[in-house]
Specification:
By secondary structure, this protein is of the alpha/beta class. The protein has one domain: Rossmann fold (3-Layer(aba) Sandwich), CATH 3.40.50. The protein is 36% helix and 15% strand. The protein is built from 8 helices and 6 strands; from the N terminus they run E-H-E-H-E-H-E-H-E-H-H-H-E-H. It has a 6-stranded mixed sheet, sandwiched between helices. It is globular, with a radius of gyration of 19 Å. The structure holds guanosine-5'-triphosphate and magnesium ion.
Amino acid sequence: IYRKATPTTLPSFLLIGPSGAGKTAFLTLTERKVVAQTHTSTAPLAVELLLPEGHTPQSSHYRSPGDPAYERSRQFQLNDTPGHGKLRHFATTQLANPTNVRGIIFVVDAAAVAEEAGLNETAEYLHDVLLALQKRYTGATSSKGPKEIPVLVAANKMDLFTALPPHLVAQQLEKAISEVRKSRAKGLKDSGPALGGEDDSLDEDREWLGEGGEGSFEFAQMEEVGTTVTVQGGNVIGGDGVDVKSWYEWIAAQL
Ligand code: GTP
Ligand code: MG
C-alpha cells in the first residue's frame, strides 16, 4: 500500500551513498519499524512514510498532535538509490531534477571510511553529489535563486568497534574531498586546451568544489551555495539497540 510508481507531491529525501552503507536498511527500518535483511539494490525505490512518534516537524511546532495539519506534515517520501558504481545514474538523474526534494541523506559506512579504499570511494561520491548541488545553485537563472538543499551525512554502523566517531568521519571526508578536487582539477588541465579553447579556465572554476585558493575543503564552504552539511552518527543495526534518532531529528527539521 505504500509503494507508488507515480511522482509524489510529498516532501522527499534522497538516500544516496556507496554500496553497502546501509541506505536500504534505513528505509526498511523506517517503513517496518524492525530491522530486516537487505540485498544490494539494483533499482531505485520510493516509499511514503510517516515521521516516527517523538519527532515534531519544524512546520508544526505550534500545532498539537491529532490536528489534521500536524498529521499531514509528518508525511514524507524516501527515495532509495543503488550505490553500486555502475548504477549511480539512478541517483544522478534524481539529483539533476530534484523536484520536492527537501534534503539529501548521504549514508556512510563509518567503519569502511576508517580505511583508505573506503574513504576514497566515499569521498569521490560525496564530492560529485556536492558539486552537482553547487552547479545547480550557481547555474540557476531565476532571480530568487534555487531552493536550498541541505545534506545529512549519516555516519552509519556506529555499533562496530572499527567505526570512526562522527567528528572524525567529517574530518577524514573533508581531507579526502580536498584531494579529490585537486586530482579532478589536474585531470581537467591535462585533458588540454584542445577541447575547451579559451573557456578552459572558466570550466575549471565551475568544476572546482567550494572555495578556491590553496586552503582545504570544508563542509562549511557549501553554505555559500545554499547547502548546509550536517554530520550525525547512528546505527540501523546493533547489539545495543538501533539509534537513528538524530537522523529523524534532521528530517523533522526539514519538514
Ligand atoms: P546498495 O543497495 O548496494 O547501494 O547498499 P545499501 O546502502 O542499500 O546497503 P544495505 O542497506 O543493503 O546494507 C548493507 C549491509 O550493511 C547489510 O548487510 C546491512 O545489514 C548492514 N548494515 C546496515 N546498517 C548497519 C549498521 O548500522 N550496523 C551494522 N553492523 N551493519 C549494518
Ligand atoms: Mg540498497
